Amino acid sequence: MATGEPVAARAIGQESSPVLLGRASRIWRTVLVLVLAVGFLGGTTVGDDHWWPFSPWRMYSTSTDPNTSVASTRIEVRTAADPGRWTPAPLTPENVGLNRAEIEGRLDQIRRDPAMLATLASSHQALRPREPAWVGIRVVIRRYHLADGALTGEFSDEDVAQWSAP
Fold first, then answer.
1. What is the rounded (10 degree) CA torsion for 153, 158, 160, 161?
2. Of 31-35, 39-43, 152-156, which gets the smallest average pLDDT?
3. Measured between alpha carbons, how far is 93 from 99 in angstroms, rounded to an integer?
4. Whole-model pTM over 0.70
């Protein structure tokens, strides 16, 4: 708006007239609401996490037994500077270009094809060129054991997949 142009103002307490929608506007809005409702209802009843945002969002509708374990996915790497030692590495967009949840969502694919982990090494090298290159990556699920909902201090690790540079 240019300087000096009048501004339409409404006095406090003055009612404005409602905007009436035409027939076409009402129809497309109704169709949109119906499509979204069908998507959410279908996702809730028969969907899975891959149907997001129409998925059932099980993480909010379930609970963990207070005497079981909770899982945390992580990666461990071997670097060119120290190829004999596995070191935990952050699974963050700043470090590998992906969030942990994005890796967790592809665990079955990574199990079948561990070479997919080479992408993380490439991404890390592009994002952090001054750090030593990764020559090995493994995905580990660490299960923290609970007793009455509290950590016991015990955990167990499951190696999901491992990749080594050729």
1. 100
2. 39-43
3. 6
4. no
